[in-house]
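Q: Predict the bound structure with zinc ion.
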Amino acid sequence: MPIAASKTAAAVAALCLCVACGSRAQAPPVTPLEALSADSVQLLEDLRYLSSDPLAGRATGTQGAALARAYLAEGFRSAGVEPVGGVFDWPFSWLPAGEAEAREGVNLIGGRTGSEHPERYIVVSAHYDHLGVRDGVVFNGADDNASGATALLAIARALRATTTRNSILFVAFDAEESGLRGAHAFVADPPVPLEQVAIDVNLDMVARTGGLLWAAGGAHTPALVPLLERVAATSPVELALGHDRPGAPEGDDWTRSSDHAAFFQEGIPFLYFGVEDHPDYHRPTDDFENVDPGEYLNALRTILTTLLALDETLPLETHPTP
Ligand SMILES: [Zn+2]
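A: Predicted complex:
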């Protein structure tokens, strides 16, 4: 039955064409921001898991930290982020002052390659460790800093919707709460030459904005200011520039308050996103339930917009090593 067979073949071919047309019509290209918005269920699931009791506050060197790391590595993998040097895990150790035994931590580093400047890197960083368990009470650290670690995954997934001019390194730091140990280990033993790191965009406490997100770093790298002002003009959360002026009252200058300090010390520009301390800061009540999903998503929209603008703008002028 050759005729019938060929009719069937034609029908199948026509159907395929229709399906192809249909799928094109149903799935227009999405922007990274649209991808981020469409990803909110996964975003919240990631945050819920990383700040859940089984992870026991993700203290450096604990099983909870290893669980967090495994989850982040799987998240990197499924977002198409590639291990740097063949592995995501970058172990390091340090000797705390006055102690006889070295302590160990593990950074997680993955990357994606830029289309125009593969040799130039934007580091997007967030520490995944927190305070662990104290007196039998779990410090879940949902805002500090499951929110930043979760953001690494969400940003990596959103960026799959586009190419970036520059390469991006996603870095989940360990042992921030022990004195920015992971960040110092990164700059001491970098996966790529530090001269090729254009900027560190560090996220530490980015969920509990209360409507106000801070961007620090412009005082040290003035080229960031017009870019941030442009982003602020249309930001869904108020984006304030500051907390970076040397000589400001104690606690007001956040230049050395989180992992970006290690980059600053190397003369690498930084952009730090974070919120004001809140009543649950470093308390066992820094829980998932206290995060407003809308506030968190709006903060990430602003951070992603800034990252895309940075990618368009690089290179920036660097400041002299302090
Ligand atoms: Zn923190």
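A: The chain is about 40% helix and 20% strand.
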